[in-house]
């Protein structure tokens, strides 16, 4: 095989050619080598004696020259002498090597390595090069990928691919010129309005702003039902039990006497006198458990709204809770129409059918003629009304006379509230130890009844809230004064003080 003209050597070599042939080039090479040597061996760092940085050889390296050498001779003389000596050694070595090649021995490699190590161990801090980015270089703030020179969006000091700039709510890209920001999250304007702008819980539309540009709405203090102010005047039905406004998505049931009932209250509504008897006797047992036994059987009737209003007109005694009275303790002889049904009422559209009323004459055999309660109310509200009216009957049968409205209505509201407590929170036996030993058995018997749904418990809490926050002087202020006395002294001592003084103990 013909020779290729390339020498294969076991030692690495670099082709010098005519680059190393001239004396001037060798001198330049050694100047560079000496500059590195002086840099690694020099002790000067920073400016010494007011000297400025000097440049050595052809390399762009800065180093400090001490004013004198170690042997006391001027620095320039010693450098010239060392340089001539180094050049002479180089020429002598070149004469021993093959012409045209420059060999690199192990000694040279060791020297180069030691020089490299000395440079790395210099007291100068390591140099961290600043990354170079071409003009237009950007990183997407969402996917963290390079944007490069493509289309991009800038927002909050961050860049995004157009398809990466997405709504936090719906997840779709934001392509509109206007959008909403919440913190560092971007939203479509429509999505942000859906999240933050309140909607009416009656018409399910965004609540409009008023003339001042502010969102104005009404809110129920217990249920937190938000609705447009206009619905207070546009004949929207309101539940006669829980007071919530009728939603356009869930129609209420008409009771036929101008009242409406929501579906949640309808679940436990008591519709006729027969269904109410078991509840009535349970409340009498509650009174007996608190050492307040009713010695006489007081008739109890469920009546319509009109019949209750007629009975109120014929009743000379008692105080009535306006604007809606839902119970009455009669002491006059009257004839009223009680609710009697042959079967459970059924729905025909949004109305109840299958109900009828019949006249019933009530004669006076004692101080209390009868207890009337409005029909169609949930069980807990019906029981709270019965407890209130039974307390009126107990006060009259026990000889309490000429009590002020605040005292009589206040203590009756306390009994209504306590019964609700025993139903909603059966483990809570307030004032029981201060009344009688039989009270605990009454509370425990009520707790053994079937468990109530969360809807019914919430209704019971609302009825308690209504009693506690009533604003009327007799039913509201009277309850709070009576409740404070019972909490402090107990029910028995409070009742005894009322009997003797006609007022609450302080």
Through-space gap between termini:
128 Å
- What best-fitting shape do the alpha-carbon axes yield? elongated
Mean pLDDT: 74
Percent helix, as a range, is 25-40%
Low-confidence stretches: 2-22, 40-70, 97-109, 118-125, 127-133, 432-449
Task: Please state the CA-atom Rg, rounded to the nearest Å.
Answer: 50 Å
Biggest beta-sheet profile? 3 strands, mixed
> What spatial order of strands do you see in the largest sheet?
14-18-15
- Classify the beta-strand content into a percent band: 5-15%
Given the helix and strand composition, which structural class is it? alpha+beta
User: What's the β-strand tally?
Assistant: 19
Total helix count?
13
Q: Could you outline the blueprint of secondary structure elements for this entry?
A:
Blueprint: E1 13-15, H1 23-41, E2 54-55, E3 62-63, H2 75-96, E4 101-103, H3 106-120, E5 153-155, E6 158-160, E7 180-182, E8 185-187, H4 189-196, E9 218-219, E10 226-227, E11 253-254, E12 260-261, H5 263-266, E13 269-270, H6 273-289, E14 300-303, H7 305-314, E15 327-330, E16 334-348, E17 351-362, E18 370-374, E19 377-378, H8 379-397, H9 405-424, H10 438-447, H11 454-468, H12 473-489, H13 491-501
Parallel strand pairs: 14-18
Antiparallel strand pairs: 1-4, 2-3, 5-6, 7-8, 9-10, 11-12, 13-19, 15-18, 16-17
């Amino acid at each position: 095989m013909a020779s290729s003209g390339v020498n294969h050597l076991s030692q690495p070599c670099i082709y010098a050619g005519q680059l190393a042939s001239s004396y001037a080039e060798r001198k330049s090479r050694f100047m560079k080598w000496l500059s590195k040597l002086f840099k690694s061996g020099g002790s000067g760092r920073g400016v010494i004696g007011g000297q400025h940085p000097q440049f050595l050889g052809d390399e762009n390296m800065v180093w400090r020259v001490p004013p004198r050498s170690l042997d006391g001779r001027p620095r320039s003389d010693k450098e010239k002498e060392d340089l001539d000596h180094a050049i002479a050694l180089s020429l002598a070595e070149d004469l021993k090597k093959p012409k045209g090649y420059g060999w690199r021995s192990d000694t040279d490699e060791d020297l180069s390595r030691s020089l490299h190590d000395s440079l790395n161990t210099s007291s100068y801090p390591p140099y961290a090069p600043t990354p170079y980015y071409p003009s237009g270089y950007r990183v997407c703030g969402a996917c963290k990928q390079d944007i490069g020179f493509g289309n991009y969006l800038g927002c909050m000091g961050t860049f995004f691919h157009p398809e990466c700039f997405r709504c936090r709510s719906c997840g779709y890209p934001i392509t509109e010129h206007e959008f909403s920001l919440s913190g560092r999250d971007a939203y479509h304007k429509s999505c942000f309005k859906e999240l933050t702008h309140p909607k009416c819980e009656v018409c399910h539309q965004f609540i409009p702003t008023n003339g001042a540009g502010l969102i104005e709405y009404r809110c129920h203090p217990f249920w937190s039902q938000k609705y447009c102010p206009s619905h207070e005047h546009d004949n929207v039905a309101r539940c006669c039990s829980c007071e919530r406004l009728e939603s356009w998505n869930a129609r209420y049931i008409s009771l036929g006497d101008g009242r409406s009932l929501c579906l949640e209250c309808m679940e436990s509504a008591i519709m006729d006198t027969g269904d109410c008897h078991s509840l009535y006797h349970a409340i009498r047992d509650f009174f007996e458990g608190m050492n307040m036994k009713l010695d006489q059987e007081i008739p109890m009737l469920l009546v319509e709204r009109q019949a209750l209003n007629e009975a109120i007109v014929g009743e000379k005694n008692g105080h009535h809770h306006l604007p809606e009275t839902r119970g009455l303790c009669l002491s006059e002889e009257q004839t009223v129409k009680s609710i009697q049904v042959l079967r459970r009422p059924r729905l025909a559209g949004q109305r109840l059918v299958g109900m009828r009323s019949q006249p019933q004459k009530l004669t006076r055999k004692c101080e209390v003629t009868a207890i009337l309660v409005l029909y169609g109310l949930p069980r807990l509200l019906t029981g709270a009304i019965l407890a209130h009216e039974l307390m009126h009957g107990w006060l009259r049968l026990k000889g309490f006379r000429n009590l002020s409205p605040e005292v009589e209505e206040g203590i009756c509201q306390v009994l209504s509230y306590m019964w609700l407590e025993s139903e909603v929170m059966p483990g809570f036996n307030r004032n029981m130890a201060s009344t009688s030993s039989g009270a605990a058995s009454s509370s425990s018997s009520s707790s053994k009844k079937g468990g109530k749904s969360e809807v019914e418990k919430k209704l019971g809490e609302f009825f308690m809230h209504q009693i506690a926050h009533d604003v009327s002087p007799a039913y509201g202020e009277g309850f709070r004064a009576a409740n404070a006395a019972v909490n402090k002294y107990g029910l028995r001592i409070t009742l005894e003080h009322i009997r003797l003084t006609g007022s609450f103990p302080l």
